[in-house]
Amino acid sequence: MASKERLFHPTLLLIIIMSSLWGSSAALDMLKQGNVLNSSQYLVSAKQRFTLGFFSLYYGDKKNSYLGIWYTNYSENIVWIANRNRPISDDSRAFLTLDHLGKLMIKFDGGDPIVIYSGTGGAETENTSVTLLDDGNLVVSEVNSNGSIGRRLWESFNDPTDTLLPGMKLGVNHKTGRNWSLTSWLAQDDPASGAFTLEWEPKTRRLVIKRRGKPYWSSDLYLRTSKNVFLFEYIYPTGFQDYIINTDAEGEYFTYSLEDQFKSLIHRDGRSAWQLQYWGPIMDGSISIIKMKFCYGYGMEDEGCETWNQPECRMRMGRQMFERRSGSFMGPDGQQAKAASGVYDNSTTIGPADCRALCWNNCDCLGYNEDEGTECRYWKGDLTFEPDDGFSGTNLKYVLTKEYPSNKDEKEWIVPVIVTAILVLFLGTFSLWRIYRQRAATNNFSPETKLGEGGFGPVYKGALPEGREIAVKRLSRNSGQGLVKFKNELILIAKLQHMNLVRLFGCCFQGEEKMLIYEFMPNKSLDSFLFNPTKSYLLDWKMRVNIIEEIAQGLLYLHKYSRLKVIHRDLKASNILLDKNMCAKISDFGMARIFKLDGLEANTNRIVGTYGYMSPEYAMEGIFSEKFDIFSFGVLMIEIVSGGKKNSIYNVNGPLNHVGYARDLWQRDSAKDIMDPTLKDSCPMHQLLRFIHVALSCLEDSAANRPTILEVISMLKNETAPLPILKKPASYTG
Predict the structure, then answer these.
(1) What is the 3-state secondary structure (H, E, C) of 303-319?
(2) Where is the Protein kinase domain (predicted)?
């Protein structure tokens, strides 16, 4: 595999010779109308951080010329290319010009001009210039009558290629209606648009990498660290970059900045550039920004990788992966086998990522070569791979290997549990524990360490020798139904990892003892604050908003972005635990159900759950879907903003419960009266009313009229998002 850092191939020629412009010894940062920039001239930003000019790349035996921007002192860091999909022959005498109409374009022999900016119209103008700024942005601006720079007409930051510089944006541009996104190079030496794109999804507030338009990886959900600064589940917290989410008149977007104290320490001259690599990951020089290396669609390594349908053969042969090796494929006759060739998805231009997909989807394929061009070279059939002693560049291939065991024959519950435990143990996040370790951690399960009773038995607080605090759920030996919940919880939560779900550290099976070991939540459950008059005042409005949003993010993961679609079925205040930072985490998956990814609803004859949080269709007909959890979430929202506990009493003459009372107040334009009195000094009224409106939309009688959790998050986070018209409220809330 190529180096993570964009290093130059031995056959690549980059012509970067800092020469004078227009006979001057000082490099200029501005191109005025009527001037040209030829292949031996450069624009250099005022503080000489960035350079704009022509450079050449060898692609095979062909030498192509491009106009690009790079860090002046690090010419390998090409951060923007004007003509990535229209390379120019190196001998075509190309030059950049800003003509009398204000058009910025590349002209060259033997072809039509490449227009970068088309100007403001057909009339002649003499009041524009193009400037290379010290942030790497190339800007076309109006020039005022006094010579000062006026309004910006075009900028390269709005047309990114594969690189995100500090201050650049990913997201939706409200002014133009376009999306800011990155597109990878096709191959190491070919800057043409490649297989991968990096986008920002404003609704889910996550970064997404797509391969040929299909989700490949996501940053997953986020944790706010300050006003607009966030951490993401699958992006490394580098310690020197702030990840920023913003919504303003210009758009909804993600960006990042370098912390001042690290600008010279970590990156000389403040040099930083997120580059979407042609094989998928994001690198900043030699630093990996995201935790993913490759995605195979299994969802076992996760690290943000999406799960997708696999060719049946790949599952049948055991879970496989590609490994870069040096050697040759040999036929049954002992002779070196010839490679087959093919194209991916009828593409006229393909890169290594396409060849990887072609081989992966061909059940006969054993490996492929990372050649670029219009065809893929791969090996198939009854062949064996013989590694050589060296590491010859001409012999490098990507070979399929069996890395993970198949779970095809998992039938009894204990088998998937143990397989899951072993797999997660392999990934370093889960372990099988001995009973003596639990006894030592909990002082032999003494009453003093007991935290309470869970769905299938007591819960104890423990401490490991290294100081880590844990919570131990112990299955009651006489609990028949508890065993069902125990099995269900272990099978599910071992496969689910998210910052807003309680984390499972391990499990213990020894004799009759069965235990689950979780992270300890020092602030216990949400209901211990909400429904306790002596503690509810500790939850100010900002904290309650954060809790609501964190529960929603956890639900979004369960419903949409986890490797399994999961319906929790018991979402309530006592199942929302709070860590030391008051971050909300969903717990207790004993009654959760795995749902088909494309399933709309299912039916059960056994009604389980908590009265007061059940949706009407489930309580009366046993029908459940993700809208069950939405209903429960609506109840939770009302409880959080009001500080009042739901009442499970149902009366045929109308709702007497807390939720019904909230709806009644809403209809009488008195919704503000539902507010917890302790919030009167910290709660903006417009936001309170918006949250109550969203909550009531979750409590519609018809499941079809309730929003999805994605829509809920959009309404909560975006104050300009339209709110639904409330229809028929649920008359049954128990």
Answers:
(1) CCECCCCCCHHHHHCCE
(2) 445-726
Reading the block at residue 81, the tokens are 């290319």
Q: What is the average pLDDT value for the chain, to the nearest integer?
A: 78
Q: Is the dihedral of CA 129, 133, 136, 141 positive or negative?
A: negative
Q: Is the pLDDT score of 197 beyond 90?
A: yes
Task: Please tell me which of 441-445, 620-624, 649-653 the model is most confident about, judged by mean pLDDT.
Answer: 620-624
Using the structure block, give the residue that is written with the tokens 């609704």: 203
Map tokens 């942030």 to a residue.
135
Is residue 263 over pLDDT 70? no
pLDDT value for 270: 52
- What value, to the nearest 5°, has the Cα angle with vertex 542 and ends 537 and 546? 110
Alpha helices, DSSP H only, in 15-81?
A: none
The end-to-end CA distance of the chain, in Å, is: 58
> At residue 110, does pLDDT exceed 60?
yes
How far is it, in rounded angstroms, from Cα 338 to Cα 331? 9
- Choice among 190, 302, 570, 588 that is catalytic: 570
Tokens 């360490």 belong to: 449
570 is catalytic: yes
Strands of 376-380's sheet in order across = 340-342, 376-380, 365-368, 396-404, 319-330, 384-387
Q: What would the pLDDT profile of 64-77 be if each residue is shown by its tens digit?
A: 999 999 999 888 88
Q: Is the separation of the CB atoms in 406 and 319 below 8 Å? A: yes
What b/e readout covers 638-671, taking b as 16+ CB neighbours within 10 angstroms?
bbbbbbbebbeebeeeebebbbbbbbebbeeeeb
CB atoms within 10 A of CB 303: 16
The domains of the chain, with CATH numbers, are: 1-144 (2.90.10.10), 312-404 (no CATH), 414-519 (3.30.200.20), 527-717 (1.10.510.10)
Whole-number Å distance between alpha carbons of 258 and 630: 39
- Give the gyration radius of the chain's Cα atoms: 30
Contact 381, 363 (CB under 8 A): no
Is the pLDDT at 17 greater than 60? The verdict is no
